[in-house]
Amino acid sequence: MDPAVAFAGPGLTRAGAGLAALALVPLGFLAVFFAWPVVAIVSLGLRSGSVLPTLADPDTWKLVGFTLAQAAGSTVVAVLAGLPVAFLLARVRLPGRWLVRVVVLVPFVLPTVVVGLAFKVLLPGGGAWTIVLANAFFNVAVVARTVAGLWAHTDRRAEDAAKALGASPARAFTSVVLPQLAPAIGSAAAIVFLFCATSFGVVLILGGAHYRTLETEIYLRTVEMLDLPTASALSLLQLLAVIAALSAGALARRRRETALRLRSAKETARRPRGGEWAVVGLACAVLVLLLVPIGSLVARSLTSGFAGYRALAGTGTSGTLVVSGWTAAENSLRAATDATLLALGLGIVASVVLVSLRRGRTRGTVVELVDAAMMLPLGVSAVTVGFGYLITLGALPGDLRTSPLLVPLAQALVVTPLVIRMVLPVLRSVDVRLRQAAATMGAGRLRVWREVDLPLAGRSVLAAAAFGYVVALGEFGATSFLARPDIPTLPVAIARLLSRPGELNNQMAYAACTVLMLVTIAVVLLVEWIGSGALGEF
C-alpha cells in the first residue's frame, strides 16, 4: 500500500470521494461529447436492421482486412523510424537538438488531403505501400516524442553496467533499455495504430477506387450515397475493432510496465559514443526523409511566385471561400487554443485519477477499462462523431450545433487521449521510494503529487501542450464536418480550395499549407524557449 495513503489515515474516505469527483470530469465529458453521439448513430443502424446484412457481405471483411493491415504496417514503419529520433531527442547532447523537435512535429500538423497529394506527386505509382508510407510519415512524431518523454528520464547506469560486463550495445538495448521503454512504446504504437486505422484524407487521395478502409467507406456511404444505416453498421464494426486493439494494447502494457528510476534529462543526455553514432546517423536520415514531402509542398507553393500568398487576402476563384484565407488562419489559432486548454485540463485530471487508482486498491481491470475508454475517441470515425453531434447536441441548452464552440470541443476530444498517453507513462513510472520518503516526512497526498509527481511529469506536460496544439491546428476529419462555412479553419479552407477548379485556388491551398507549417514551427519554437528557461532541457 502506498505510504502516502496510509499516512492519510482517517482522510482516506475523503480522498476517495475527491478522487471519484475528479474522475467524473473527464468521464462526463466523454459521455456527453463522445458516447452519446456515437450511440445515437449506431442505434440508427441497429434499428434499421442493416447490421447482419453488412456483416454477411464479403466486401465488408475485405475492408476490415485492408484497414487493419495498412494500419499495422504503418505502425511498424513509424515505430522503427521513430525510435532513432527518440534516442536523438532523449540521450544525445548535440547543438541544434531543438531543431529536431521542430522538424519532427511539422509533418503531424499537415492536413491529410495535402499530404496525400504530396505523396501522389512523389510516388505516382500509388499502391498500398504508398498509403503505409504516408501514414507513417504523419506518425513518426507520435513515437519520437512519446518515447523520448520517458527515455530522457530513465537511469542509464544499468545500461552502462551491462556494457561494462561485456554486453554488446544491441544486447544492452534489448535486455535493459527496451523493457524500460516498453510502456511508452506500447502507448505510442496504440495511438499510431488508431490514427492509421481511421486515416481519411490519405486513403481517399492515394487509394482511389482500389484501396478503401472502413473510414473512407463510412464517409462515402454517409455523404455521397446517403446510406446512413449501412454507415452506422460499419461504424459499429469499426468501434468493436478499436476496442479489441485497445484491450490488446492495455494487456501488453500491464504485463510489461514496471516502475523506473527517473533521473534528470540533463544527467542522461551526453555526446554519442562508439556505435551510438550509427543510431544518430539513422535518425538524421529519417529527418531528411521527413523533409522531402514538406519541401515539395513549399516548392509547389512558390511555382507562381508569391501569387498564392497574396491571394490569401481574398476568397479564391468565384468566391470558393466565404471568408479570406487569413481569417481562416485566425479561426484555426483560436480554436486550437481553446481545444488545447480544455484537453490539457481533462488529460491531466484523467492521468492523475488513473495513477491514483492503480496505486490504491482498485483492481487492475477497472483501471485498464477506464484507460481504454479515454482512448476510444481516437479510433472512431470522425464522420460518426460529427453526424452524431448534429443529431444529439440540439437537446442541450443553447443548441451547440450552431455554436463556434463545437469545433474546439471536437478537437479536444481528439487531443485529450494524446495528452493522457504522453503524461501517464511518466506518472506511472515515478519511483515509489520518492513518494514513500515524502510521506514519511509528513507530506500529505496533495503535497506528494505537487512536489514529487508533477515536477517529474512537467516536461511531458509541456510536450503534450505543444503536441496537442499542433494536432488541433491540423485536425481535419471532425472539423471538416462541423466547421461552419463562415468560420472555417485553415485545413478546411485548404480542402475546399483543392476541391474546386482553378489555378488560383491551387496556389492559395499550397500557400495556406505553408502558412500552417510556419505557424506550427513558431508555436513549437515558443514552447521550446519557454521550456529551456522554466523546465530545463527536454
Structure, explained:
The protein has 538 residues and is an all-alpha fold. It is globular, with a radius of gyration of 23 Å. It contains 24 helices and no strands. One of its GO terms (biological process) is transmembrane transport.
**How far apart are the first and last residues' alpha carbons, in Å?**
32 Å
Number of domains in the coordinates?
A: 1
- Rg, rounded, reads 23 Å
Low-confidence stretches: 1-12, 256-260, 532-538
The CATH class, by name, is Mainly Alpha
Strand content: under 5%
Assigned CATH architecture? Orthogonal Bundle
Task: Please bin the fraction of helical residues.
Answer: over 70%
Protein traits:
single chain, 538 residues, mainly alpha, MetI-like fold, globular, disordered C terminus
Gist?
It is found in: Cell inner membrane; Cell membrane. By secondary structure, the chain is an all-alpha fold.
Helices and strands, with pairings:
Blueprint: H1 3-8, H2 12-48, H3 51-56, H4 58-91, H5 97-109, H6 112-122, H7 128-151, H8 157-164, H9 169-197, H10 201-207, H11 214-224, H12 228-256, H13 265-268, H14 276-301, H15 307-311, H16 325-359, H17 364-375, H18 382-392, H19 406-428, H20 432-440, H21 445-474, H22 477-482, H23 490-499, H24 503-534
Helix pairs in contact: 2-12, 2-16, 2-18, 4-7, 4-9, 4-14, 5-7, 5-14, 5-21, 5-24, 6-10, 6-14, 7-9, 7-10, 7-19, 8-9, 9-12, 9-19, 11-12, 12-17, 14-24, 16-17, 16-19, 16-21, 16-23, 19-21, 20-21, 21-24, 23-24
